[in-house]
TrEMBL record:
Polar residues bias (residue ranges): 338-349
Bias-annotated ranges (Basic and acidic residues): 322-335
Keywords, in A-Z order: Membrane, Transmembrane, Transmembrane helix
Biological classification of the source: Bacteria, Bacillati, Actinomycetota, Actinomycetes, Kitasatosporales
Protein name: Uncharacterized protein
Transmembrane segments: 39-62, 74-92, 142-160, 166-185, 192-212, 232-256
Chain positions covered by the region annotation Disordered: 322-349
Signal peptide annotation: none
């Protein structure tokens, strides 16, 4: 549906169908190779994909149930055996000892060295600098002046007016000799180059262009088709492996899981309820009543023993004196407060 308005009088162009990227036309050789290769590769890849999926499931189960807990345990043991002792050694032994050695080294080496540099080497260096400035510098300048006008100036004159012309002449003769040698070796190289080109390069180029290139193109087509067939077969084998897995899971469910669930639901659960209601609850009630009776009997026996002991003690030692009641200093709730009575800490009776 075209939602844009066109100007009046503008011709309507025919709709051009948008298609994906144009594929290159395939020859009969490609089509003839593709179908047999895909069939053979599919037959070979399906068992491999099924075994691969089974190994993947087993590996995941092994990793989740065995390797990961064992790895965590080994990691904790490794930390406890290797990391924590070294951390404790570093924190509580090496660091304090290092600090102590650093402080000792400072007071034994750094501080004496600083004192020696400040109060011995610095004054000596200042004295040497003063000697260099006022003694060696004037002497060096005088020697430099003598060397300049006795050695450098005559040597420069000899170089400019004697050695330079002689060197230019020698350079011209050397350039001519080099040109002659270069032309000689250039002629030899051109002869060897064209001989090697005619004998080796041109036959090799013809072999590459008319033999190896067509064979390589055919092999490239075969290899591409084998690669595409392997990918297609691997995907199809994955769907087949998934279907086989679902089939085996459904078969296992209907053979083992559903019968077990049915037995548990229709047989074991009613039997368990019957045993609970007929055997377990009456037995528990009887046990509770026996325990209650036993506890009452034991309590009555303990009370009888306590009374017998009290009777024997009274018969031998006499009845103990009853404690006298102590008058409470706080006013009772029933008493009424008057002007002559007080309950404060300072005016209590």
């Amino acid at each position: 549906m075209d939602l844009e308005k066109r100007p009046v009088g503008q011709p309507v162009e025919p709709a051009v169908r948008q298609t994906p990227a144009q594929q290159a036309p395939e020859g009969c050789l490609v089509v003839a190779i593709r179908i047999p290769v895909r069939i053979v590769v599919l037959v070979l890849v399906v068992p491999v994909r099924i075994v691969w999926d089974a190994l993947v499931v087993a590996g995941r189960f092994l990793v989740d149930t065995v390797l990961r807990p064992v790895g965590r345990a080994l990691l904790w043991i490794g930390r406890a055996v290797f990391v924590w002792p070294w951390v404790a050694l570093w924190r509580y032994v090496v660091v304090p000892v290092g600090k102590g050695l650093g402080r000792l080294g400072y007071w034994l080496l750094v501080a004496p060295t600083v004192w020696l540099y400040r109060y011995v080497l610095t004054p000596v260096g200042h004295g040497i600098a003063w000697l260099y400035r006022w003694t060696l510098v004037p002497f060096g300048r005088a020697i430099a002046w003598l060397v300049r006008y006795l050695v450098v100036v005559p040597a420069a004159w000899v170089y400019q007016y004697v050695l330079t012309p002689v060197g230019h002449a020698i350079a011209c003769v050397a350039r001519g000799a080099v040109w002659l040698v270069r032309m000689f070796f250039t002629g030899i190289w051109l002869g060897i180059y064209w001989t090697a080109r005619v004998l080796f390069v041109l036959p090799a180029l013809a072999l590459w262009r008319w033999v190896l290139t067509p064979v390589g193109r055919v092999l490239a087509v075969v290899g591409r088709e084998i690669r595409d067939a392997l990918g297609h077969a691997w995907r199809v084998a994955g769907h087949i492996s998934l279907a086989v897995g679902w089939f085996l899971a459904t078969l296992f469910r209907w053979i083992f899981v559903e019968p077990t669930r049915w037995v548990y639901r229709t047989v074991l659960t009613p039997v368990g309820h019957l045993v609970r209601d007929v055997v377990w609850k009456p037995a528990a009630a009887a046990a509770r009543s026996v325990g209650r009776t036993t506890r009452q009997a034991l309590a009555a026996a303990r009370e009888s023993v306590r009374q017998a002991r009290a009777s024997v003690r009274w018969a031998l030692l006499g009845k103990p004196a009853e404690p006298r009641p102590v008058a409470r200093r706080e006013p009772r709730a029933a008493e009424t407060r008057t002007l002559g009575s007080s309950t404060t800490a300072l005016t209590k009776d």
